[in-house]
Design brief:
The chain is mainly α and 460 residues long. The chain has one domain (15-454). The chain contains 17 helices and two strands. A two-stranded antiparallel sheet has the order 1-2. The longest helix has 37 residues, at 52-88. Mean pLDDT is 83; it is low at 5-13.
């Protein structure tokens, strides 16, 4: 592993063809991420016809899957960082070897996690709500989506490898196809028809399971048909050094993802214990928030891939200038998006079925907070996921996530909700304290350039 933290060359501020590279990599990722968010919104909106309990149950049950998916995301993120850098060195064998190792390791972790979430679904739902109807429906959702986590793991790791080599279209096409299938199955199974009774929450879970299985079959069938390098490239006979390098990145990356995911789960528990209506509003705003962030997610993936490939070639000056370009772009774009969302707030609330008097009173100020804070959250995303992690600065990111969320955000939000008994809008606003701390810590770290590392190793 090569570590260099100083710039040795003076190049122009923006590397040639940067914008076209960002669009080529980031746009397909953004579209796919948006489609996933639309699917999550479709799940919530369709089951909302069955009442606030059904809406809340899907929100909290899917949050447990979200925590498990964050384990995969942490592992896949580390895999993507290494694949990008090895791809920059034109080393396909190392890129394939580490991807296969990650798939195998993740499957071993997720089998017991899946069993725990499913078998003890009723008990773990009690942590988020005391509403017995919500608990029953949420448990049903988890049982019907039993194999989803393993299937999702295979997809996430495969997609991380493809995107890190610049192939963002394959994940987009296959993902879009299965999302269309998922939405169609939602209409059929949730609402009923063609001889199938309305299944409600169970239908949403079953539709997700079927479509995810289809996505796995399509992904590996396509790779086999194309004789893709991910299947055809030779694997290294001795992967000890490569695995050690991966663990150095993956352990803090995965731990950080889990720390953050459990924190978001605790936020949901806080709103759940404030009331079923508050939980329903929080559950419906969440997917829309993800939709807003999807374009920025595409930019952060493009940033991570391009920086990773430059760092793998020891092009440190170019990497730093790329990072400056991404930070400025996201800041301006985030402010513009937030302003547009603020002007369209009532239209958005109507589209989310949050326009009734009971729900509007809670949702309107929360959406205002989201619009005003989106630029800050996106700036944090690009610095953390697009820059710091691209250079393997994952131990810092783990410490930062713990401090900002567990020492600031979660305690303040819980104190406001349960001790001060504040209204929903003020409790929701307090979650921003975490983002402010993140930005202060991460921007200082970015300027110190500790993230400018070549992480590749000689695997011989």
């Amino acid at each position: 592993m090569t570590v260099k933290n100083y710039l040795n060359s003076n190049r122009k501020s923006t590397p040639d063809g940067m914008l076209s590279k960002v669009i080529k990599i980031g746009f397909p990722v953004a579209v796919q991420s948006a489609l996933v968010a639309v699917l999550a919104m479709a799940d919530v909106l369709m089951v909302s016809d069955f009442g606030n309990e059904a809406t809340a149950s899907v929100g909290i049950a899917s949050k447990w899957h979200f925590v498990a998916i964050m384990i995969m995301a942490g592992m896949a993120s580390a895999n993507g960082v290494l694949v990008a850098q090895y791809w920059g060195k034109n080393d396909r064998s190392s890129a394939k070897t580490i991807t296969m190792l990650v798939m195998s390791c993740g499957a071993k972790i997720l089998v017991p996690v899946t069993l725990a979430i499913t078998l003890f679904s009723g008990s773990i739902m009690m942590l988020q709500t005391t509403d017995l109807k919500v608990i029953e429906l949420g448990s049903t959702y988890l049982w019907y989506s039993f194999p989803v986590l393993i299937l999702t793991h295979l997809i996430i790791v495969s997609e991380s490898a493809l995107r890190s080599t610049g192939d963002t279209l394959t994940p987009l096409y296959l993902g879009a196809l299965t999302i269309i299938v998922n939405i169609a199955l939602n209409f059929w199974l949730i609402k009923g028809g063609f001889g199938v009774p309305a299944m409600g929450v169970a239908g949403a879970a079953l539709a997700t399971t079927i479509s995810r299985l289809l996505q796995v079959v399509l992904m590996f069938g396509f790779l086999y048909w194309r004789r893709h390098w991910l299947l055809s490239a030779a694997t290294l006979p001795d992967s000890a050094k490569l695995w050690a390098s991966y663990k150095h990145i993956a352990i803090p990356s995965t731990a950080s993802a889990v720390v953050w995911a459990i924190g978001t789960l605790v936020y949901q528990m806080i709103f759940g214990h404030m009331g079923t209506t508050e939980l329903a509003v929080f559950s419906m705003i969440g997917p829309f928030e993800s939709l807003c962030y999807s374009l920025f997610f595409g930019i952060s993936v493009a940033c991570s891939v391009l920086l990773g490939q430059s760092l793998g070639r020891d092009e440190f000056a170019e990497a730093f200038k790329m990072s400056q370009f991404f930070i400025k772009t996201v800041l301006v774009f985030g402010l513009c998006v937030g302003l547009l969302l603020l002007f369209a707030k009532d239209m958005i609330l109507s589209g989310l079925n949050l326009s009734s008097a009971e729900l509007y009173l809670l949702a309107s100020p929360a959406l205002t907070v989201l619009c005003c804070a989106i630029w800050l959250r996106m700036l944090n995303m690009i610095i953390i996921n697009g820059i710091l992690r691209a250079g393997g600065d994952n131990y810092f990111c783990l410490r930062m996530d713990f401090v900002s969320m567990w020492m600031v955000g979660v305690p303040l939000t819980a104190f406001a909700a349960f001790i001060l008994d504040w209204d929903f809008k003020y409790v929701y606003m307090l979650m921003l304290a975490e983002e402010l701390v993140k930005f202060a810590l991460c921007f200082q770290r970015y300027l110190k350039r500790y993230w400018m590392n070549n992480l590749t190793v000689t695997a011989a």
